[in-house]
Amino acid sequence: MISLFPRQFWRNGLGVLGALTLLGGCVDMPHPFGDPGPEGRRLALTTPPPRLAVPTPSASLLDNTASALWAKDVASQLVDQSLPAVAQPAKPGDWWLRLTATMEGDQVTPHYDVMMPTGEARGHWDAASVPASVWAQGEPKFLMSLASSSAPQISSVLTGIQAAMMQADPHSLKRRPAKVFFKGVRGAPGDGNVTLARAFVASFPDQHDKLEHDPKAADYSVEGVVTLSDGPAGNTGHPLQHIEIVWRTVAADGKEAGAATQLHDIDAHSLDGPWGDVAMVAASEAAGGVHQIITNYSGRDHKPLPPEQGATSGKNKTPV
């Protein structure tokens, strides 16, 4: 959970209402190898295939057992980074991770190359060099530590690859606004369902996201849900209520992208009638939260990885 503000006051005699938080969808990771499903792929949330193979390397300067363990540890750590990597030989059509190591003097440098199905390298990262005597032992604790420290860097390379693919796709969310279907608001007392919905529709559209009337054509859907519950008596003897407004954002494939949540205590039944300016302030803050959720989930703000310099093919078309 990330606390964005308190920012504005919700007035109308209600005092301060509304720290906005984002729940879920806030990790800065667009899951570059996650499968968005048929509808998601149609909507050009561009991704490679949903598996990254990690074959046992033959050019690792390790024995066979240690080489296999290195591949297994790397795959396991990538899974912890929300990447469905598998320690197995690459199959036709797979993206895969090539592990190698080279020696210079008495130092060994581990290399990681992200390989496309064509056999060309698309991105790489080199770990810090280690003494050759340490590398040659292939100790399990050392290999696990190496995999653990390397996985976030490899994930960053994959994120850059996805961003570059999105940049090249005119239909991706890097090249066009996201289309959002608004399902409305439910659960609010008084005229809250109507006034919150109207205020959200007025506040939400910008150059990055627009509202879409056809749910089948939308990249995301948003719904506001209001919940009231009894609170304490209050400092002045007046009863209070807890109010929670959750603006839930769901991607086209049905997966939840995140939720912007507003929480506070209010004077009991103070919103049983007109919401007035409270609705506009609440909806304006919520719109900003939904924009951030979509940006984080789609990865549209990530920097594209430049083309690989001197990318190799030919002999690398068959993973080793």
DSSP E strands, number = 13
- Fraction of residues in H or I helices: 25-40%
The backbone outline, from C-alpha atoms, is elongated
Major sheet characteristics: 7 strands, mixed
Residue-averaged pLDDT: 81
Q: What is the element string, with H for helices and E for strands?
A: EEHEHEEEEEHHEHEEEEH
Based on secondary structure, the structural category is alpha/beta
CATH architecture of the largest domain: 2-Layer Sandwich
Look up the CATH topology of the largest domain.
Double Stranded RNA Binding Domain
CA-CA gap between termini: 42 Å
Residue stretches low in confidence (pLDDT < 50, at least 5 long) are 1-19, 23-48, 311-320
Radius of gyration: 25 Å
Strand content: 25-35%
Spatial sequence of strands, sheet with the most strands: 1-2-13-12-11-9-10
Please give the CATH class of the largest domain: Alpha Beta
Question: In words, what does this structure look like?
Answer:
By secondary structure, this protein is α/β, with parallel strands linked by helices. It has two domains: 2-31 and 177-298, 2-Layer Sandwich (Double Stranded RNA Binding Domain); 52-168, Rossmann fold (3-Layer(aba) Sandwich). Helices cover 29% and strands 28% of the residues. The protein has helices at residues 37-42, 64-80, 132-137, 140-168, 192-203, 277-298; strands at residues 2-6, 19-23, 52-53, 85-86, 95-104, 107-115, 121-126, 130-131, 178-186, 209-211, 220-230, 240-251, 256-267. The strands form two sheets. A seven-stranded mixed sheet has the order 1-2-13-12-11-9-10. Strands 3, 4, 5, 6, 7 and 8 form a six-stranded mixed sheet that branches. Helix 5 links the parallel strand 9 and strand 10. Helix 2 (64-80) packs across helix 4 (140-168) and helix 5 packs across helix 6 (277-298). The longest helix is centred in the middle third of the chain and has 29 residues, at 140-168. It starts with a strand and ends in a 22-residue tail after the last helix. Residues 297-320 are annotated as: Disordered. Residues 310-320 have a biased composition (Polar residues).
